[in-house]
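Batch manifest, entry 17 of 40.
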Amino acid sequence: MANNVPMEESVYQLLKDVDRKYFKSNRQVSKKSMLYQTIEHVQSSDWFENLNLEEIENYPLATATLKDATLTEAGQKHLAELKPQFDKDKE
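Output type: C-alpha cells
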C-alpha cells in the first residue's frame, strides 16, 4: 500500500541517502514517482551537487543522476536542521 509522504520528509530522506552514499548507480524513475517529484523539487536548491533529472523522450521516465550526487555545505546544514523532525527514533 502506498504511503503519502510529505515533501519535506521526502527531501530529508533524499538528503540522508545522498549523504550516506546510498545510491550505487543512477536510476530510471517514473515521472509520477515520489523520487522524481522530490528531485524536481530540490533541483533549484543549493543543497546538492551533481543531482539531475534527464527526461527520456517519448517515455514517462527520466534518468536520475544519483551515483555522483553529493551534498553541499548548505545541504549538510539543511539535513542537520531536518534530522530532529524526522529521525525521532534515533534519539
